[in-house]
Give the backbone structure.
Amino acid sequence: MVGLGSATRIVVTLVAYMAQNSGSVEILFLWMAGRASLRIVLVIVVLGAVAVALSLGTVRILQLRRLVNRGRRD
C-alpha cells in the first residue's frame, strides 16, 4: 500500500511538472540533434528510466530465484 501511494505521488508530481514546462528545448544526443517539447522529452526519459529499472529488477529476481532453487536441490 505504501508503494502505491508513493507511485501515485510521483506520477501526480510529474504530471504537474510537465503541465508547467511546455516550452521547446534543444536535444543533443550522440550524433543527433533536434528540438522537441519538454513534455515529450520528460515522458521519454521517465519511460526509459522505468524500463531500465524493471529490466534490472527482473534480472536480479531471476538470479535470486536460481540461487534459491539450487539450494533446494542440494
